[in-house]
Amino acid sequence: MNYQEALMTIKNGDVKSVYLLYGTERYFVEDLTKRFQNEVVNKDDQSLNVVTLDMTQQSVQTAVKEAETLPFFGDKKVVIALNCSFLTGQQAKSSIEHDVSYLENYLKNPLVDTTLVLVAPYEKLDQRKKIVKSLRKNAIVIDCHPLDEKTLRDYVIRSADNATLKFTKESLNLFVERTDFSLDKAINELDKLNLATDDSGKITTQMVLELVPKTTEESVFDLVNQLLARKLVDCLETYQELLSQKEEPIRILALLMSQFRLLLQVSYLQRSGYQTPDLLKALKVHQYRLKLAQQSVRRYSTRLLEEVVVMLNQLDYDIKTGRVKPEIALELMLIRFCRDKAS
Length: 343
Hints:
The chain is α/β, with parallel strands linked by helices.
C-alpha cells in the first residue's frame, strides 16, 4: 500500500490493528502517524491513549505490552513504535534487546481496540527475517519511500494549487533542487513561500533564491565547479558560506571527496560506453545528482579530476594524521589549486 492509498483508508475509517510504515520519506511517516492518532483516538483521550515509544530506548516487548493493554477511559488506543531497526539487517546501535517473538505472537491475535504502528524509516527491510515475513502477512505495510522526480514535481504543484500558489517552470525547477528532492523539505518551504506571495500567488525564481536556502550538498557542488574552473574568489566565498552554516571543515572535505569520486566514476564509465540508465543502476545516485555530474564531466578532463582526487586524498590523510589543522588546511588547498595554473 502506498501513502495515498493509506490516506484514503484512514479517512474512510477503515483502520486495521497493525501497520508497518517503512521508507525514508519523513513527510509520509510523520503525516501518517499523526493521522492515525487523530482519526483513531478522540482528541480529549490522546494524552492517555496515544503511546509513542522509541525502539532505540525501549524494547519491542514494551511496545507489545502497551498494545495489549486496554484503552484507558476511552474506546481506542494507538501505540507507535519508532525506529524499528530490528526489522533491518543493520547492526544494533543500542544495547536494547528486542525479543521479536512477543511481536510474532501478538500478530496472531492483535487487540481490536488498539492500532499498533511500527515505524522503520530505512531504505530496506531484511526480507529473510521471520518477523518481516510475518508482518507482510499479518499487518498492513505502507511504502514510505521518497517519490521519483516526476511524481515529486506533480505533488508539489498540487500542493501549491491547494494553497492558490503557482510556480513558473523555472521557479519549480529551482525549488525542487533547493529542497533536495525531499517532499518533507518541499512542504515546509512551501509554507514559507505562501507567506511571502502577493494576491496573485505567483512564485518567482527570485523568491525561491531569496527564501529557500541552498542545501549543503548544493553548496558543495558549487564549490566543486568553482574549484575546477579555478575561480578563487568564488571558491573562498562558498567555503566561508559553508563555515557560517556551522559545517565543519572535515565534513566539507568529505563531501568534496565524495563528489569528485562520483565525477571520476562517471568519467570512467562513460568512456566505457555507459549510458544514463546504466550509470544510474551502477552508481545508485539520484537522477538529478547524476545529471549535474555529467554536465561537469563534459567540461573537464579525466586527468584534471584525477589530479583533484589525489590532492583531496592527500589532504584527508594529512588532517587525520595530525600534520595539518583542518581549520586552515582546506582553505589553503583551495587557494593553492586555484593559483597553480591560473597565473
